[in-house]
Amino acid sequence: MTATTGQHARQDMQTVVTRTVGQAREHRAGLQGKVALVPTMGALHDGHTEHIRICRGLADHVLVSVFVNPTQFGPGEDFQKYPRSQEVDIKKCAQAGAAGVFTPSVDELYPPTKPGVDIEVPSLSADLEGQQRPGHFQGVCRVVAKLLNIFHPDFLSLGQKDYQQLRVIEAMLADLMMHVRVVEIPTVREPDGLAMSSRNRSLDAEQRQRALGLSKALRQARSLVEEEGETDPQAVEQAMCSVMQAHQIDVDYAVLRHPKTLGELTCVEPTLTGGVIALTAGRVGTVRLIDNMRLGGPAEK
Ligand code: PAF
Question: Across-strand partners of 14?
Fold first, then answer.
């Protein structure tokens, strides 16, 4: 497959690139059958192409949005430095069989003359990423709601890598009665365990090694809970923290939480509660990374 840029007229087996909301709506309106939306911030890697691959098995057409969303970055965060590779991204989407790629400008999605709207899920977004990045989830909810209103997809793919985001968006969809089926995509890892992330591009070789501390900490937690039967969450959290610190990671958090409510646990009961979620976040140099792993319980739905 190849990509057509500029005009959105679809040619045989080509990926249509749209840049305005009007073009995107018109392209969507012409698609028959089920549609899946894969929202991304670009700098696409194999994890993203896995979203497209899985969605192609579910829907007749897969649409990908590539938009570095400014409202989910706080002051002093890496919005300006966030990796961008739009032309390569469009090619990757085409190769993966996407029917369309939507690459709007900031003014297109956030018209400067219109008053803005906040969408918040306070019970799920105050803690963890929400605490480290105030306003982050409001920005995520706002852009995802916009994309859903533009495309009205049947399926919305979301990565388990951004675990809290997944739970927050699910809650938004349920409360606002937005009719779309969420497809959870398992985290894709490099052979050595590092979770794929667009931000990995910003790591140098030495930082790349140190970044392994996030996934190693999670594996340590899994071994303590599943093999050694550790039930004290604080003991597991302390062990995760030590692994990260041994890799010179500036730890934001290393915690065990309830997989649905993200609430704190008094006891780890993987078999009774259907599992717990271990979450890690920290900085390697100036690059902030997150990861997570389900411990015990059934596999992700
Ligand atoms: O997960 C991401 O890449 C972003 O948060 C999303 C969902 C595309 C919204 O900008």
Answer: 2
